[in-house]
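Chapter review: from sequence to fold.
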Amino acid sequence: MSLYGEKFKIGGLSCGLVLRGGANGEYRVVFEREYASLEQIEALEWLRQIEAAVRKSYSEAKALVEAFEETGLESSLPTQSSVEGAEAPADTYRQIYAMLF
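The token string follows.
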């Protein structure tokens, strides 16, 4: 049972609490293991870095995708979007992969 409830979703993962910190320059998010695994959270961070790299350099993005594949975390990406009509993180990754390889 959740201590915080399911109030927010980030990248398709339910989180219980979002706090502002660093004089409002950063946010801190509490994920409960009941709703999100460490692997899912790590996979979302990899995807965020890959998406940023695609905007700058395909070679950098390709290297990140190869490193991500080596971790085996790509199967941990959420398959549902937290925003209606938006793509799920797993679908976004598959599109980036298809574009680069």
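Two observations follow directly from the output. The longest helix spans residues 38-56. The mean pLDDT is 88.
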